[in-house]
Specification:
This protein is of the alpha+beta class and 150 residues long. It is 36% helix and 29% strand. The protein starts with a helix and ends with a helix. The strands form 2 sheets. A 4-stranded antiparallel beta sheet has the order 1-8-3-6. A 4-stranded antiparallel beta sheet has the order 2-7-4-5, with helices on one face. Helix 3 packs across helix 4. A hairpin with a 3-residue loop joins strand 4 and strand 5. It is built from 4 helices and 8 strands, in the order H-H-E-E-E-E-E-E-E-E-H-H. The chain has one domain: Jelly Rolls. The longest helix has 30 residues.
Length: 150
């Protein structure tokens, strides 16, 4: 990932240089076409992804309303954290809004690395928990708007 992508709000900037290097060593690069579903709600989540280029939409199927965008992700954003949490099922659909390049790290390999390197494990779970907590608040506010009258 470029230094420019590492600046600002990039998920990777949350880590020490040692942990960043380990994460990047485990990563593979994936390419997704605009409109392509990267992962679907309910599917097995195999990879933790970090957007390297492009843009994604995190979507949820809402009965009677259909698929709705919960949030969008840009360069540096992380998605598919479900790959780290049993039963490893995607909690939302993620679709490429434009042609997107992402780093993917296999959840199982990452868990093995965390067992071997406690610093990696500590930093990873702290960072993922922070992301999940902030997204929970944002999703909650959006759902209030969806279900409230008027």
């Amino acid at each position: 990932m470029s230094q420019e992508a590492m600046r600002g709000g990039s998920f990777l900037t949350r880590f020490s240089p040692h942990v960043q290097a380990k994460l990047l060593a485990l990563a593979q690069t994936f390419h997704f076409k605009a409109g392509e579903d990267i992962i679907r709600e309910g599917d097995h989540s195999i990879y933790l992804y970090i957007v390297k280029g492009g843009r994604v939409a995190v979507e949820m199927d809402i009965p009677t309303l259909g698929r709705r965008i919960l949030r969008t992700g840009d360069v540096g954003d992380m998605f598919s954290w479900s790959a780290l949490v049993e039963p490893r099922l995607a909690t939302a659909t993620v679709r490429a809004i434009e042609d997107t390049e992402a780093l993917g790290i296999k959840g199982g390999a990452l868990m093995d690395a965390c067992r071997e390197d406690y610093e990696l494990g500590f930093e990873l779970y702290r960072a993922v928990t922070e992301v999940i907590a902030s997204r929970f608040v944002g999703t909650r506010l959006q759902l209030v708007n969806v279900v409230s009258p008027g």
